[in-house]
Fold these 2 entries.
Entry 1:
Amino acid sequence: MNRFAYSIAATSMILALALPAASQAATAAAAKPAPTMDQILKASKPSDWRALNPDDTLYMDLPQGRVVIELAPVYAPLHADNIRTLAHQHYWDGLAILRVQDGFVSQWGDPAVEAKHPDHPPRSVGKAKSTIAAEFERDVSSRLPFTRLPDGDVYAPEVGFSNGFPAARDPKTGKTWLVHCYGMVGAGRDNTPNSGPGTELYAVIGQAPRQLDRNIALIGRVVQGMQYLSDLPRGNGPMGFYKNPAHQTKILRVRLASDLPASERMHLEALRTDTPTFEALVESRRNRSDAWYLYKVGKIDVCNVPLPVRKAPKLP
Amino acid sequence: MNRFAYSIAATSMILALALPAASQAATAAAAKPAPTMDQILKASKPSDWRALNPDDTLYMDLPQGRVVIELAPVYAPLHADNIRTLAHQHYWDGLAILRVQDGFVSQWGDPAVEAKHPDHPPRSVGKAKSTIAAEFERDVSSRLPFTRLPDGDVYAPEVGFSNGFPAARDPKTGKTWLVHCYGMVGAGRDNTPNSGPGTELYAVIGQAPRQLDRNIALIGRVVQGMQYLSDLPRGNGPMGFYKNPAHQTKILRVRLASDLPASERMHLEALRTDTPTFEALVESRRNRSDAWYLYKVGKIDVCNVPLPVRKAPKLP
């Protein structure tokens, strides 16, 4: 019993019975199901993909495996610069995942910062900055392409995708910002807006906490290895911090891909979000053609759109 | 550095600077912050809470701890009956969590059903039914109170809460249904609508998969112990099923609370969702008064509203 199966077996009968008052055209369409996401990806062209930039790619190695993060320098340039500087210096090596709050975030950084023990001062940030101006939203510009979703949003006037990241816009203010979907990575901060220099980062592991949008700088997205952040034991202290430091997960090392020799870099590609292929992917998720779906909702939330990443195929 | 702190320290200055074009009335309100969720819960009256009905409460004991599920018999009466019968018979004892798909669901049931090995037939369902009519939506009725949220929804015409569960309504069709928020529990099915008798259940562990709404029967909600379903290693097979049965988590036992002696029952209470206290809670999450929040979004998604459950306080 393959429940929620993604099979594309003959669907016309079931769909015809289940769809409300379908027009003849719709019935004809149902007879030949629209392509599924898997079919769309298989039919994609090389130009539908973009290679991840090594200057914008972080590898965070945990004992369980590697987490790959793509930085979003167009949205958070100061944070991206500081995070690159911290990675150059191997700032995170030997630090830890300090917090895992169920349904919310996993967060990593320097245990000494949280512990505030006089004998164990925090690690130096070296040449990196310890405060950065808030980068919570930006002016809409041509550098920030926007593929808008048609189905609206509870939190923002417009939502869609920009350079592969889920994003929102407000035509009234002329501002745009990244949104807190599953797997998005941000720079933790204290109560002052400039207190999050990127030393302590978090990834969303639950229902999109959209109330954080425009309240904190999102700096990128986990593009591979998300499960190593989401399957960790939940912290037993307030807000999911681990009471016992022995429960923290050690970070082996964090490296910027461009700091590694070419032979040690991963060759990953992300599906572009400004192409007809991506539009077809969105449509395949708004109206699932898989036989399992009896009711087609015809809508999608910005945080339910998959953003595929793959190993670069070998050239012929 | 208590990031995302829930402190309620003096907020007026920061808020006054950050809020766009606040009216004088709003400025005055900011000077005396609205109560936080914690403050609202602390001030709640006994009548704001309802005891969980032992006939509607399942305890699923895993090696790591107990998962408590509240059934939703008003929305899925046939499924609730069948699940009670299965629990009476100790159907799930010794079965396993078969699937953990990152950002989607954890799913449990009989490994033999999925394995389809001729020498290991599935466990008998005994007096329970092996097929049940679909219970994907119901007629709106007075038995289904509805506290509507004011902020709209991407997927449904109306969303809110009914008897403690997240729900949706369509005034045009006169139908109502439960929605797939984090922690909601449903009855897995094959491609035919009546193929999900409640033997194999799943809980949502990621971003609300709202495309499942009206496509499958939601039968309840995890009200405690969610972390024991969300922190499991992700399955390495297709759709997050474990390729190696040794990686499955064994279910020690599943019991209906009313099948246990009174001394072995937990005394849990859920916050009622049809009270002014609940409305105040929703408002405290639409506009956070915590000092950390610089921007107040003034909106909330149905799946971001907390549904508190507590140990019943001792009577004086």
Entry 2:
Amino acid sequence: MAKVAPRTLSGFMELNPAPQVQMETMMDVLRKTYALYGFTPLDTPVIESSEVLLAKGGGETEKQIYRFQKGDADLSLRFDLTVPLAKYVALHYNELSFPFRRFQIGKVYRGERAQRGRFREFYQADIDVIGDGKLDIINEAEIPSIIYKTFSALGLKRFRICVNNRKILNGFYAMLGLTEQAPEIMRTVDKLDKIGAEKVFKILTEDVSVSPENAHEILNFIQISGSDQQVLQELDVYKGRNPVFDSGLEELTTVVRYLSAFGVPEENFAVDLTIARGLDYYTGTVYETTLLDYPEIGSVCSGGRYDNLAEYYTEKQLPGVGISIGLTRLFYVLGEQKLLNPDLNTAPADVLILPMTDDLSHAVALATLLRENGVRTQLHCEQKKFKQKISYADKLGIPYVIFLGEDEINAGVVACKELATGEQTKLDAKATIYRIKAGLDAKAGGTVIVER
Amino acid sequence: MAKVAPRTLSGFMELNPAPQVQMETMMDVLRKTYALYGFTPLDTPVIESSEVLLAKGGGETEKQIYRFQKGDADLSLRFDLTVPLAKYVALHYNELSFPFRRFQIGKVYRGERAQRGRFREFYQADIDVIGDGKLDIINEAEIPSIIYKTFSALGLKRFRICVNNRKILNGFYAMLGLTEQAPEIMRTVDKLDKIGAEKVFKILTEDVSVSPENAHEILNFIQISGSDQQVLQELDVYKGRNPVFDSGLEELTTVVRYLSAFGVPEENFAVDLTIARGLDYYTGTVYETTLLDYPEIGSVCSGGRYDNLAEYYTEKQLPGVGISIGLTRLFYVLGEQKLLNPDLNTAPADVLILPMTDDLSHAVALATLLRENGVRTQLHCEQKKFKQKISYADKLGIPYVIFLGEDEINAGVVACKELATGEQTKLDAKATIYRIKAGLDAKAGGTVIVER
């Protein structure tokens, strides 16, 4: 028969079993951490009607969308989890209780140009808190805590959650009479790290038609830095000149005030006035998270406060705050940087049973007993050489191998070998289970990510 | 602004938060049970190249496929998890160890005509064991055990795993010289329950040109029933007439022999000669699972043994055995039949904290402490009436509410109310956590499914 060459589309991550277990472990950590903060899991379709999904319309994303006809229907694959959330909340408004706290880990699709480390199908892990009409600032203050706990639980230490407030920026530019140019100014200022202050000054004055005085003011403002308290103090100087600015400063002060009660260490947090987030719809606190040793990766967890989640679907005012982790890209980058823990247990089983008799009843009964005791067990009854079977366990990282021959069966014992140490015991089934479980407990733990 | 009416496509399941938790719990049970049997989790792309996905070509499925162009690429959404597995094993053959045991829970897509209880996007939960060249019969014998443990863990009791062997059927029809007509005969015989023996006889003799003698033989054969041992004994009569039949009978005998060692109770298992499974590629043991009180639902977990998983992609002989649960449909049906446990804890949090002071530091610190102790905690700081907040906890099923006012803070205690009983305690934080965790433990347990 003529064969079709098997292949996986470029830009689509497909992992081998061991890294897949690492990826699943990451997702588990996220699910558990989000649950601790009272978020409920949600699942929405991958396919939506194009009319609904593209209600906002325009923008860079639209070109990247997987859009197609099926019968009469104009369909699109979701390109993020925010638009489906907006639709969900608008559609199910009457069945939900607000504030509505949900997390969603799901695949999204963007037909970007294929390049290393860019994916067309990738997981996003999102949390959002949606209010009905209003939403208290404490929700914005809680987000750094969630980011901190999430990355800590994954095993990261050297990361920083950077926070700013859009009202501070908008208020500041309003003071200078530059409200209209603000978006363009922010885009320019965002390049400060890359192109330097002089170049930014040049673009501001020449291309964005900002006066030299204002350009200086902007550069001074944007470069305010130091400890969180120092930054807040320097910002205090601008107070009283614009109500939006004042409100933003108050919010930022609140976010900073509760940090320690929320368990966020100072070294994992910074007020950073250069952060604006590209998206237009953020209106308050904005977040970015960077790995201190890998700044080139950019933000690995971003988000912010918005005033109107579902304005394209409903008259209801639905303010919220949310963050998103691009999980597939993060996983890829962690792998590239060799930050994934090679000692994480990725074996598909804890024990491999090698029956040495024709009648398998005893081996099967032992496997059943092990499983009933929560030990992940595989029977290996293929016609292969003994050495091959041991090598199989070895390759998969299965820590224990059990041999069950006539002698053992007659003596009522089980021969159990720990592959790493070579230590072999002959104990009855119960004692063997006890030994294996103790060994597994000792080996357990260890985070997905290990920093060098 | 003009609004777009929010809607979810018909045939796409989108659950409210509480049922979503039930669904997630089901998936968790599946993941845990599959892991106990040494299956490793796998994830493959939802989109594949059409050439790869449709390598087999033809068939009913092709019309239902979501297929579209993106740039130059001819793409399709996967319609099951078997074809992607075949591609995966062929593509990653050199990186895998065999037997390769994987499970996958993922969404698949079929553009069927929309009707109640039929879904266009639905989860399948599959397990497969793939051998390299050969695969021992014990793997086929193990499958009923996995099905049994899975459904038991979900909470079902009244179900039956029905097993047959394609070799027995093929061998039997070969004895009668009816090999060519066998597929059509099996399709006809499959309708026995629905249309009765007389009608089957009529179709066999008139439409499939089977002689009346053979039609009688077929009907007698297919209606062999009784205990597993009785069926095997009656089949013994046919032995020695066809090697394929004999081999099938030996396999079926092996599957039955190990049942009790695999922990499968007799009442949950039956040899059923009417089962053939529609798909052509099954070659040995085949499985169906029916809910005894809801036979009209059909099989909720099916599969079988096949000889050649990836014949469209590779010359390698890759025999395997697998089963699949149509999870979305099962969930829907369970809901319709009111079999989902209404007492399952679906609350997004264990505790709702209501701060009664302007400064939230104490409340935040308490929330942090609770979370560090594994208690899922939500702070409720919105400007709403006290009654509304209690009603919020009530609606979401959050079992405990904590009030934290000046008095409590000054006294170093926490007022904690269990909503179900109204019981209120004023204890310090540690004792409160202890009380809550004990209460949660007492409430825990309970399966997703509860039979009446």
